[in-house]
Design a protein that fits this description.
pyruvate-formate lyase- activating enzyme, alpha/beta, eight-stranded mixed beta sheet, binds iron/sulfur cluster, five-stranded mixed beta sheet
């Protein structure tokens, strides 16, 4: 799949790099000093690169583990994230990565061992009875390139003997072989993101279909693995209730509720500057061209729509699953809101503390 691969000369000798390169014997391989020489170039064509991204193999030198933003979590005591990869195989029109990076090329930091040491060192700062969560899939999809990168496999091993250290692999992929070959571990949650089928087909380009993702979840559950459901971002349409109702019915009537670890809900939102970049990249795209609102530095749906979607979805999900498994990915309710939204706001405020 990769025709061009750039490799930092520092990592050329890594066994992991040799294994990755062996998969792309036809690719042109160019060495460089630092990945930033390619990744941060000015005047790159993101849309063009997205069609045929290059792979860049690099070493990260610091900042392996980051504090997760406030409100990011699924019930743990401490939340962190890490990214061994920047950018993604898939092409969701709402993806914030398009606004964050100049380049659509895929950067992989191959020194997993440094991430792993930093992760365990971070976890060791806390008491053994505290849940410390590490989220992967913040700047990429955790499993989409697993057959090439074995990233999930490596980090599952890292946390396998620590009971209070939790790992979330967030994904829209069906590449679950790394998990299926192992005995299930209670502290690993593979969390699948969903939008309704019609929306997914329209704006989640190259992403495996809803049914395929569900089939992957069922295989994991059959083997005893916990899974998560992420309805984040919720995407509005005039018939969102029917669309989400169908999706919830499909998922909740198929999955084993006892092996659903958590569900999170968050409406579409992007930092203003990222959204502006998306407007520049896709001026004719009907999703981007919607009349969004701007508040608290974020672009999102008008507040009444945001509150209505979150409130309605929350109610529907509660029909299927205990309240204590449902989390809101963000709380973006300002103090001054239109009077028509006040009842929804107070409903959500109550629910956010559950
Ligand atoms: S799967 Fe996630 S990371 Fe990948 S393009 Fe879609 S939103 Fe972005």
């Amino acid at each position: 799949m990769y025709r061009n691969i750039y490799v930092e000369s520092e990592v050329l000798r890594y066994h992991r790099v040799k294994e990755i390169l062996a998969r792309y014997t036809d690719a042109s391989v160019v060495t460089c000093d630092r990945y930033t020489e390619i990744f941060n170039l000015k005047s790159q064509d993101f849309r063009l690169q997205k069609k045929q991204p290059a792979l860049i193999l690099a070493r990260k030198h610091r900042g392996y583990i980051q504090q997760a933003p406030a409100g990011y979590g699924v019930g743990g005591d401490h939340n962190f994230y890490f990214s061994t990869m920047m950018n993604c195989l898939y092409d969701c029109r709402y993806c914030f990565l398009q606004g964050m990076y100049r380049s659509a090329n895929h950067v992989v930091f191959v020194n997993y061992e440094d991430f792993s040491s930093a992760l365990l060192k971070t976890a060791a700062r806390f008491e053994k009875d505290e849940q410390v969560w590490f989220f992967s899939g913040y700047d990429c999809d955790s499993l989409a390139l697993e057959p090439v990168l074995s990233m999930a496999d490596f980090f599952i091993e890292t946390v396998s003997s620590s009971q209070n250290v939790w790992l979330e692999l967030r994904t829209k992929s069906t590449q679950i072989r790394s998990l299926l070959k192992r005995t299930p571990l209670p502290n690993i949650v593979t969390a699948f993101s969903f939008t309704p089928t019609a929306i997914s087909e329209q704006i989640e380009h190259q992403v495996p279909g809803v049914e395929k993702r569900l089939a992957a979840m069922l295989r994991l559950q059959e083997q005893g693995w916990s899974v998560g459901l992420r309805f984040d971002p919720l995407i509005y349409s005039h018939n969102f209730r029917e669309q989400y109702q169908d999706l919830f019915n499909l998922l909740f009537l198929s999955l084993n509720p006892d092996l659903i670890h958590s569900i999170s809900i968050g409406v579409f939102r992007l930092p203003k500057d990222f959204y502006k970049q998306l407007e520049r990249l896709y001026p004719d795209d009907s999703f981007i061209a919607q009349p969004f609102n701007s508040r608290n530095g974020q672009v999102s749906y008008p507040l009444n729509i945001e509150l209505e979607m979150k409130s309605w979805c929350y109610k529907q999900i509660q029909e299927h699953i205990e309240k204590n498994k449902i989390f809101f990915a963000e709380i973006s309710v300002p103090d001054s809101i239109p009077a028509t939204s006040i009842s929804l706001k107070s409903e959500l405020d109550v629910r956010n503390v559950n």
